[in-house]
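Thread: Tripartite ATP-independent transporter DctP family solute receptor, structure

OP (GT): Posting the sequence first so everyone is looking at the same thing. Length is 346 residues per the record. Can we get the structure tokens written out before standup tomorrow? I want them in the notebook alongside the other entries.
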Amino acid sequence: MNLTLPSSRSLTGKLFRAARTAVAAGSLGLMTLSAAGAEDYPELTLKFGHPYNENHPLAKGAQKFADEIGEKTGGKITIQVYPNSTIGSSRELVEAAQIGVVDFALVPTTNVASFYSPLDIFYLPFLFRDSEHAYAVSDGPVGQSLYEGLQKVTGIHTLAMYESGFRTITTRDKKIEMPDDMKGVKFRVVNNPLNVATFKALGANPTPMALSEVFTGLQQGTVDGQDNPVGNVKAFGFDKVQGNITLSRHQWAGIMFLASDKLWQSAPDGVKELFTETALETQDWEREALNAVEASYLKEMESDGMTVTRLTPEQAAAFQAAMEPVWDEYREKIGADLIQSAVDTK
């Protein structure tokens, strides 16, 4: 398996963004946002749920979306944001969006993949070389095709793709430098077969667990380690109960900005256009905010006594090779052509 990816930058992102906004509007003759005054918007109170701590850039992005919608509509559309899984876990939020109980949700791609399996491509280990390649895939033709497929199967609409960055490995006592170091480690994973397979390939004992339960699980020793991006490690306080973090970058955590079909079917076209445009604006803001704070989070965790392991190219290659069986298992499940399209995206 060749996992060497070309350096890539999302040169067409703005074009696809414009196309998505136009599709959301539904026709060329609709009013534009600039021409629409606050009086054109209906009075709505909507729910936006997500599993993230209020200090996380993802939570701030969700709140920024709510605030901007309120400002743009002169307060006519109110979006109530519910952080910290207060109205449901990631899986429950997808289910709630399906039936229209929740209007918007931020959910990791790996959780949404339980409802539409081609989305597993986003968590195929070491698929993405860097953030720009991940953005090019998620914002370009491959991403658009996946979002359309999700909508056809579940009714749920994808307005944008936030991110929580590349995933790391943390453990209580054991420093992780090579795949063999993972053998026998009781390890929390996302409740998705691909994530379980990824850590089984490393010899760990994977334990699926909701994000809201991870801190307690680590604190009580139910699990000895977990994998999450740097921002999540800091925001959820995992650094307080873990002594080691390895910057493995084994998966990119795209966070889907979802809207229920019930909302989409009932909202006027101008409102749908507003939601789509604002979601994409805050997507860019959230990505920049997330990447800006990661370095400071790592520095703070290291100063507080956490051991930070940065893999050498040889060590990273060893992890990549150890996860080849996951590619073999999921190539047919996800689709070889889809995977190749993602690899070839520039």
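GT: Both are above now. Quick notes for whoever picks this up: The chain has a mean pLDDT of 90. The longest helix spans residues 269-303.
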